[in-house]
Amino acid sequence: MSAPDYSQIRQQFPILQLNENGQTLVYLDSGATSQKPQSVIDAVQNYYSAENANVHRGVYGLSERATEKYEGARDKVKQFLNAQASEEIVFVRGTTEAVNLVAQSWGRDNLKPGDEIIISEMEHHSNIVPWQMLRDQIGIKLSVLPINDQGEISLETFKEMVSEQTKLVSIVHMSNALGTINPVKQMTEIAHNAGAIVMVDGAQATSHMQVDVQEIGCDFYATSGHKMYGPTGIGVLYGRQELLQAMPPYQGGGDMIYSVTFEKTEYNVLPYKFEAGTPHISGAIGLAAAIDFLESIGLDNIAEREAELLQYATEKLSGIEGLQIIGQAANKGAVVGFVIEGVHPHDMATLLDQDGVAVRAGHHCAMPVMQHFKVPATIRASFGIYNNLEDIDRLVNSIEEAKMMLL
Predict the structure, then answer these.
(1) Separation of CA 54 from chain center
(2) Which fold has domain 41-295?
(3) Residue 205: CB atoms within 10 Å
């Protein structure tokens, strides 16, 4: 595939034409949510204007067409993640719900007091709190794999931690706060050799790199549509079919049933057993359009382009006096978190906004990471395929100007 025209790609995002405080918007918060290309916006709008009906239930043409689009989206996700079957793709609200589903369905059905779950120190709160809740419910042990001062985990330390008591490992693929890309394939092999299953939080990964769940070998993989140029409120849980088949439903209601009497309910087949109620139909259709958008560029091209942005941003930011980058893993995605001596991150982010530069300041739902590096918060610039070198220059110039005001 030839190199894309990135200036043309940028033009596909109408929101980037906005003026913010009198200047063209520089959006550097894709780690929180990505902006949406016109093709995704059009797909959602077309559903509501020309295809809107409930799915799986109507025998009239409009409902059948909506169902075809919705299930077509599932097939597209299956191909995108290289799952073995569409039955392994469960639509959820996002990565957070996917982790909760596994914790409350697989976890409560398979774990007992004394069993161990391993997570890492770099996890998003969504991959910490559900396991803490499960720990408090049934008395399991929750162990934390440490990170070093580059923001990396050690495979040797992980090997030493995994034992016969380890039943589940839940690990982030790419850290939202540090950008670290974890060796999830090797970690899966280590965990499987000890008899444990593996869940991967892929919320940050699927828009930045090719993800193949069969190659990784993981048992569960979760991601969120809104971080991969799709709508909010739609996400995916991939689960190996035999695991999903054995798991009890997460929620009860319509569409997850086969038959209901007051004496007994028989549950629907996969994946509908886990999709109670009217689903986010437009979200799934928009997610399919987002996958089309990603594949039209090529995930390898995206990874190469974002590596260039990361290298340029790292070099430019490192030249600012008093600025310290938090997390410098050897294998890292397009995220740069940093602090500036004598400046509170929130003050800096507020002043950057006055220049039309949107960055995130805070703990990024990763408070243990902040505690590790002994900082209350960081400023985070996270990049998408629509960003360019000029955006980074705007960021650096705005930081220098804000420093003169704050110091």
Answers:
(1) 27
(2) Aspartate Aminotransferase; domain 2 (3.40.640)
(3) 23
**Residues spanned by CATH 3.90.1150.10 within the chain?**
6-30+299-406
Look at residue 387 in the predicted model and tell me its pLDDT. Answer: 98
Q: Does 3.90.1150.10 match the CATH number of domain 6-30+299-406?
A: yes
- Cβ-based neighbours of 193, under 8 Å, separated by 6 or more: none
Q: Tell me, what's the pLDDT at 20?
A: 87
Residue 266: C-alpha distances to residues 212, 243, 387 (Å): 33, 18, 50
- Angstrom distances, CA of residue 91 to CA of 37, 72, 77, 236, 366: 22, 12, 10, 5, 25
Q: What are phi and psi of 399, to 5 degrees?
A: -65, -45
Q: Which residues are catalytic?
A: 365
Residue type, 11: Q
The answer, as to whether pTM is greater than 0.70, is: yes
Q: Delimit the CATH 3.40.640.10 region(s) of the chain.
A: 41-295
Radius of gyration of the chain (CA): 22
Alpha-carbon span 245 to 215, nearest angstrom: 22
Tokens for 303, please give them: 């990874």
Q: How far apart are CA 137 and CA 143, in angstroms?
A: 16
Which residue matches tokens 């243990």? 368
pLDDT tens by residue, 340-384: 999 999 999 999 999 999 999 999 999 999 999 999 999 999 999
Q: Decide if 199 contacts 134 (C-beta within 8 A).
A: no
- The 3-state secondary structure of the chain, one letter per residue: CCCCCHHHHHCCCHHHHCEECCEECEECECCCCCCCCHHHHHHHHHHHHHHCCCCCCCCCHHHHHHHHHHHHHHHHHHHHHCCCCHHHEEEECCHHHHHHHHHHHHHHHHCCCCCEEEEECCCCHHHCHHHHHHHHHHCCEEEEECCCCCCCCCHHHHHHHCCCCEEEEEEECECCCCCEECCHHHHHHHHHHCCCEEEEECCCCCCCCCCCHHHHCCCEEEEEHHHCCCCCCCEEEEECHHHHHHCCCCCCCCCCEEEECCCCEEECCCCHHHCCCCCCHHHHHHHHHHHHHHHHHCHHHHHHHHHHHHHHHHHHHHCCCCEEEECCCCCECCEEEEEECCECHHHHHHHHHHCCEECEEECCCCHHHHHHHCCCCEEEEECCCCCCHHHHHHHHHHHHHHHHHHC
